[in-house]
Amino acid sequence: MNKDGSNVDLHVEVADTAEERGKGLMARDNLPEDQGMLFVFEAEGQYGFWMKDTLIPLSIAFIEGEGVVIDIQDMQPRDETIHKPDEPYLYAVETNQGWFARNGIEPRSQVRLARTTPTLIQTSTAAP
């Protein structure tokens, strides 16, 4: 559910191995509007993301282990700037740049992960 109380679904591919996380969305020239990639780490940490070989602009949401979005950042194609939040996180979701803003998802939104085919993410805004 987003900040307006509406359910928002995002279909994601899961990257839960070091190899999958390392490749991410590199070399793709498009991404459907309602799709993205969920990065799952073994433990909470402050892992960095860059866009060196990524061809499309993306937004990334960093999510802590309890499912709360702690930060959202926009990333530009082929940029080597390292993106990471100031706090540790367990999950990250990359999708088309601006998707989170267009769908009312912001820091402190609550995320529910549901393993289906494909994986589905539902979000809601947590109370302040």
Which helices and strands occur, and which strands form pairs?
Elements (H helix, E strand, L loop, with lengths): L8 E7 L2 H6 L11 E11 L12 E6 L5 E7 L13 E8 L2 H4 L6 E6 L4 E7 L3
Parallel strand pairs: 1-2
Antiparallel strand pairs: 1-7, 2-5, 3-4, 3-5, 6-7
Attribute tags:
128 residues; mainly beta; 7-stranded mixed β-sheet; 7 strands; 8% helix
The succession of helices and strands, N to C, reads EHEEEEHEE
Major sheet, described briefly? Answer: 7 strands, mixed
List low-pLDDT spans: none
In the CATH hierarchy, the third-tier topology is known as Jelly Rolls
Name of the CATH architecture: Sandwich
Task: Please state the average pLDDT score.
Answer: 89
Total number of distinct structural domains: 1
Shape field: globular
Q: How far apart are the first and last residues' alpha carbons, in Å?
A: 15 Å
How many helix segments?
Answer: 2
Strand fraction: 35-45%
Strand order of the largest sheet: 4-3-5-2-1-7-6
Q: Give the radius of gyration.
A: 13 Å
What does this structure look like?
The protein is mainly beta and 128 residues long. The protein has one domain: Jelly Rolls (Sandwich), CATH 2.60.120.1140. The protein is built from 2 helices and 7 strands, in the order E-H-E-E-E-E-H-E-E. It has a 7-stranded mixed beta sheet with strand order 4-3-5-2-1-7-6. Helix 1 links the parallel strand 1 and strand 2. The two termini are 15 Å apart. The mean pLDDT is 89.
